[in-house]
Design a protein that fits this description.
By secondary structure, the chain is mainly α. 71% of the residues lie in helices and 0% in strands. The protein is built from eleven helices and no strands. The longest helix has 44 residues. The radius of gyration is 25 Å and the shape is elongated. The chain starts with 6 loop residues before the first helix and ends with a helix.
Length: 308
């Protein structure tokens, strides 16, 4: 447990990290117009989802989902309140109050969700226009890549033991989010011990891996805290979707057999929550797979450029 005298230093460190994240969100004035627009949208998006989630493909609920949640939980809260009145117990009012307050909080978040959706739509339209004139800087060379989940591998034409050790270290840490000073020191030592002609190749590979690491985990602050990367999957999204449908179906069955609307509304509320969550998981899974494919394509292109 932290001592009271350590809190000023902790606050100062948190403020320093906050400034670093804000600085990282500032657009680069020397970048091309498309990249500047991407960076400007990333900064604007942070106003809607928070700075730590500005790189997440889907960190906010749409207006329709927000309205559905609001109505569902408000209905559940009203039915729980009626049940509490029948029971004449003050303790029974707590879950009713929770659902009603939660529905009001969701309603307060509705304007932010609308702004986020409209802002993203305007950004995509403007980006499409700029790409027609300047091209897409994120486009990569089309290479033969598998549609399945790829694993870290390296060329078998390693020209030195240091290069082989470099790739072994990268493969060992590929699924891990914890990168301490020992890891970076070891990585730089392998690069320094490689032949001079190969040091630039290894340095570019290390920079590419670091960018991919930040893209997966959002920020260096979270990279140092997380152990492994739990990537979302399309199968998991369909599984949650099926559970949500099953729960809603069970609610409709209760609607025909129960005189009270409380339990059908509860099933509908939680079923809708799971359905909305499945769409979010699927979107993040598709975005993650596409980003991972781009990363491997860039690695493959780098190996090709250096004759590996």
């Amino acid at each position: 447990m932290a001592k009271l005298t350590e809190f000023p230093a902790m606050i100062a460190e948190a403020y320093k990290e906050q400034l670093a994240i804000e600085h990282a969100l500032e657009p680069d004035p020397n970048a091309d117009p498309v990249t500047q627009l991407d960076q400007a949208w990333r900064k604007e998006r942070a106003n809607y989802v928070g700075m730590l989630h500005s790189d997440s493909p889907n960190s906010y609920a749409g207006p329709l989902i927000s309205i559905t949640f609001c109505l569902s939980f408000f209905g559940v809260g009203v039915m729980l309140w009626r049940e509490a009145n029948a029971l004449s117990s003050w303790f029974a009012y707590f879950p009713a109050s929770f659902c009603i307050i939660w529905s009001l909080l969701v309603l307060l978040a509705l304007p932010n969700a609308i702004k986020a959706v409209l802002g993203e739509r305007h950004y995509l339209q403007k980006r499409a226009m700029l790409v027609k004139h300047y091209g897409d800087p994120k486009a990569t060379t089309e290479l033969l890549l598998s549609g399945k989940r790829l694993r870290y591998s390296w060329p078998k034409k390693s020209r030195s033991e240091a290069e082989s050790r470099f790739h072994e270290l990268q493969a060992e840490y590929y699924d891990s989010g914890r990168r301490d000073q020992t890891y970076y020191a070891t990585l730089q030592r392998y690069i320094a011990h490689a032949p001079a002609a190969d040091q630039r190749y290894l340095s570019e590979l290390a920079q590419l891996e670091e960018r991919w690491l930040k893209e997966r985990f959002g920020s260096l602050h979270y990279v140092n805290q997380l152990e492994t990367n739990q990537a979302p999957s399309v199968f998991g999204a369909w599984f949650v979707f099926g559970l949500g449908l099953g729960l809603m179906g069970f609610g409709f069955m209760l609607l025909n057999r129960s005189a009270s609307l409380l339990y059908p509304l509860l099933c509908a509320a939680f079923g809708l929550t799971m359905l909305a969550g499945s769409f979010s998981i699927r979107k993040r899974a598709i975005a993650f797979n596409a980003a991972e494919q781009r990363y491997f394509a860039q690695r493959q292109q780098l190996c090709h450029d250096y004759g590996r």
